Amino acid sequence: MIGISIKNFSIAFGDNEILNDISFDVQAGEIVTILGPSGCGKSTILRSISSLESGYTGSIFLNETCLLNGANKCNKDIGYIFQDYALFPHLNVKENIEFALFKLKANERQKRVDKLLKQFDLVEHKNKQIHELSGGQQQRVSIARVIAYEPKILLLDEPFANLDSILRAKTKFWLKNLIKELGLSAILVTHDQKEALSMSDKIGIIHNKRIVQFDTPKNIYKNPNSFYIANFLGEVNTLPKFIAEDLNLDLSKTSIIRIHETKITNKANNYKLNIVNRLYCGEYEEVILSFEKELKSQIKLRVYIDSDISLEEEIYLDINKDKIIEVNN
């Protein structure tokens, strides 16, 4: 069942067009990530779904039956998790969660809150004030408060932005499992490529006010339809024209290879390289090299400390044609 359906969505603020002709679906139990740089309009989609923005053209359907058009609203089905958590500082953990359940009878409300405190591992923190919690605990309270009223749709606006890298990784797995367990239709907006790849069932990439590719993380990563998308999802090296000619590649396209798949060798071949710069990064060195045949063409790669490659000897590009991706400019 389709939980959210966006059809031909466009929005402008005055004369400033933000998004143009955006369309995608989110199935029940599916996580769709809208990925793009800061300021591209990602959060505007969430705000429009939740009726915090109006004046758009196109249609937004919830669970195939509820059309949001500025007059027909279904906010009770929507849970919205903000980047700053939006918790009430004057209420403790238990009271923050209870706030979403004020319409329930006292005994039913207590049962629901106790269940959520246990589910979100917050029992021992239930009487603490918000400022006494860690960032990860605050986020769990924020999510518990949203889940309390049993929404069918979950909107996540940069939910991991305020967490450190270790806590972010742990929380991603936990939240993804929770969404699957509850069968929610979820939209995540982020500018973090790794976050999108690891969390999503589908990814829509916004560029120049449109979704330029919408597919599974693996398909987008392996088969980007443009140089912009390939480079946005992870740094790439552009191969010089003389290599494309040698390998009989399509010269009308840009030939790229991802940095982690760019290899070098000390065995001589036609693609000799010279070191331009090298940075020590602990377990590896990041090395920038130029081609002896074409000095303006440079590539970047990582040489790990346990590699048998010597950077003190002559270096050559060790090209694997199967790793090359040909993309439109």
UniProtKB/TrEMBL annotation:
InterPro entries: AAA+_ATPase, ABC_SmlMolc_Importer, ABC_transporter-like_ATP-bd, ABC_transporter-like_CS, P-loop_NTPase. GO terms for biological process: quaternary ammonium group transport. It holds the Pfam family ABC_tran. Gene3D superfamilies: P-loop containing nucleotide triphosphate hydrolases. SMART domains: AAA. Residues 4-233 form the ABC transporter domain. GO terms for molecular function: ATP binding; ATP hydrolysis activity. Keywords: ATP-binding, Nucleotide-binding, Transport. This is ABC transporter related protein. PROSITE patterns: ABC_TRANSPORTER_1, ABC_TRANSPORTER_2. Signal peptide: none annotated.
